[in-house]
Amino acid sequence: MSYVTVTGKIQMVDMECIHQALEKLGAANIRIASNNLTFTINNRHYKYSIARNGVLTIRTENQQRANTEINFMSKIEENYQQVLEEKHERIRQEKIRQEKIRREKQALEKKLAQQSANISKEQQAADAEMQNKLTKLNEDLDTTKQSIADAESFLARVEQSRQEFVTTTVDEIVTRGQNNGWTVTHNKKEANRAVTRLQLRKKQMN
User: Fold this and answer.
1) Crossing angle for the helix pair 15-24 and 63-179, nearest 10 degrees?
2) Domain holding 69: CATH number?
3) Is 136 inside a domain boundary?
4) pLDDT at 24 over 90
């Protein structure tokens, strides 16, 4: 018995595309190995050999059967090319989308970096300004404290001098009065008014 071998016209090396091409024909129970392909359509079993270059081959009993297989194999190859082109188009579109995302990502990263730098500079400027204000306030506070301390020291010296003057003056008045025959009958210091009251009386001569 002689056989006729039918050989495909294109290389089909993408197993996923082969599977999808057969599904378009309504195939089921698809099995794809390194050197053979089997599937069923309408309960009919098909078995193809896959050459090393990815071309399908099948042996038939006669030329009439071979013509039928040639037509069917052409449909498989046509579907395969269509699925393969769709796959390439999906990959191309995916690459375009990924490139768009990559550019958007770079633009966003650049924008965020610029914003971060600007915020950092603004924050540094604000911090420096606040620090300068704080330093100035501390200096003003120290100056004020020193001024108050100097003023209080001066007032203390003035008060001490005044007290010394009053004491000296009272002593002098009393001494002079006694030398001239007067006696101190009343000596009162009013602290709240910073006043010293003296009352002198003339000694009685017998």
Assistant:
1) 120
2) 3.30.310
3) no
4) yes
